[in-house]
Amino acid sequence: MLKALVTGGAGFIGSHIVDYLIKKGKPVKIIDNLSSGNLDNLSQWKDIELFEFIKADLLDNEKINEAVKGCDEIYHLAANPEVNVKKASPEDHFKQNIEATYNLLEAMRHDGNQRFIIFTSTSTIYGEADQIPTEESYGPLKPISLYGASKLACEALISAYASMYGFRGLIYRLANVVGPRTNHGVIYDFIKKLHENPNELEVLGDGSQSKSYLYIDDCISGIMCGIKSKSDVEIYNIGSEDRTNVLAIAETVKKEMGLNNTEIKLTGGVDGGRGWRGDVKLMQLNMNNLKRLGWMPRYSSDEAVKLTVRAIIDSFKFP
């Protein structure tokens, strides 16, 4: 049986993809440089025949050319996930997102045996959309972060390669995905800050940033539902049906940690209350393309946040 290749398969979303595929009986090959992924996320599979792990970077052409061999499905999740420019440089985004995606597509072109590539893009490619909820046909696309720009460049490469070289390209523009195994983002950061200082919680921005939060189970079901499409190139939004704001998330984290007396300190932020330059203040996606295939999210943003807070608290490895 041909295998599925999952790039970034030791990471948050990637490891949940691996779980899904192996439970369905699909042999899986994972390639991950472990810069942000963790082998603990895959520990339940390490001794079974359906599982193969390669520690390598997608900038290593020899490794990625070898990795695609014998694989008919590609799930491309490897990327630098940081939106905040203080945590990732322009070079980081170019190499780990754009160049890595180009290398993978070139390997697929030369191998020629892949049926499709699934790519996890981001809602940040829309920039500051004036249509909320934002649908896939919205434009012009003007990302305001280097992360969003790099993901949009990857989308264009995948669309062109899929159209020219005979495999399908499925692009998923994700809201803020949360759940067990996440190791970055606002919820994780709040829990870490409160562990270090339970008396005060610093919140970047003015607290009004309002966005859609998607629970990992809904994310995986949406990705798998989209495969039903027969188009050469298809773009899907995946998110929840509503939004929640940063201040509400802070209050949820406080409550779940039993820290009701903690003082919340708002920094005020930049550029009208953003947490950082490039932070989109308002985001919610229109998911009608996926809904027409029968998909619906099970969890609201607030429910996704609460479930994630509990999961992180239960598993958090404090220094």
What does this 3D model show about the protein?
The protein is of the alpha/beta class and 319 residues long. 36% of the residues lie in helices and 19% in strands. It folds into 2 domains: 3-177 and 214-238, NAD(P)-binding Rossmann-like Domain (Rossmann fold), CATH 3.40.50.720; 179-212 and 242-282 and 298-315, UDP-galactose 4-epimerase, domain 1. The protein has 9 helices and 14 strands. The strands form 4 sheets. Strands 3-2-1-4-5-6-11 form a 7-stranded parallel sheet, sandwiched between helices. A 3-stranded mixed sheet has the order 12-9-14. Strand 5, helix 4 (146-165) and strand 6 form a beta-alpha-beta unit.
Features:
Rossmann fold; seven-stranded parallel β-sheet; 9 helices; 319 residues; single chain; 14 strands; UDP-galactose 4-epimerase, domain 1; alpha/beta; three-stranded mixed β-sheet; 2 domains
Q: Care to count the β-strands?
A: 14
What is the CATH architecture annotation of the largest domain? 3-Layer(aba) Sandwich
Relative strand content: 15-25%
Count of runs of 4 or more consecutive helical residues: 9
Identify the overall geometry.
Answer: globular
For CATH, the homologous superfamily of the largest domain is named as NAD(P)-binding Rossmann-like Domain
Category from helices, strands and their pairing: alpha/beta
Terminal CA distance: 43 Å
What sequence of helices (H) and strands (E) makes up the elements? Answer: EHEEHEHEHEEHEEEHEEHEEHH
Residue ranges: pLDDT <50 for 5 or more in a row? none
Count the domains: 2
Assembly state (oligomeric): single chain
What is the CATH first-level class name of the largest domain? Alpha Beta
